[in-house]
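Structure ticket #2291
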Amino acid sequence: MQNKIRYTLGKQERLKSRKLIDQLFKEGKFFSVFPIRVVWQYRQSTSGILQAGFTVSTKHFKKAVHRNRIKRLMKEAYRLQKNDLKNDVDAVNKQLVIFLMYVGKDISGYPLITEKINSILKRLQKIVHEENTANN
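Resolution: structure written out below.
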């Protein structure tokens, strides 16, 4: 039987823990792929876990409708492209926590956000591979 790829973003894959988010912002590492800024942290874990959080600044987008639209676009782009990164994290039994912040001042279209999320995930895959080779 064929192993189907599941494109989901379930409850366990979302970053909701206030404690974990605070620790991420204190100890995590940052990089930007405009218009998205990424905070990430690679942690020890008993099983491979990939968690992501999404946010949009109220400073640039006063209306919740606009913030929610951008978050929906980011979540959808992430959901469809995260499987390669998830497989890499599962293989090493570590936890990767990422937080994506939209820092642009204009609402971007879906193709641009998809392209940026893709480059972010490729960069995170490279980081996971470097961490694995450093630890082995």
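Closing remark: The chain has a mean pLDDT of 92.
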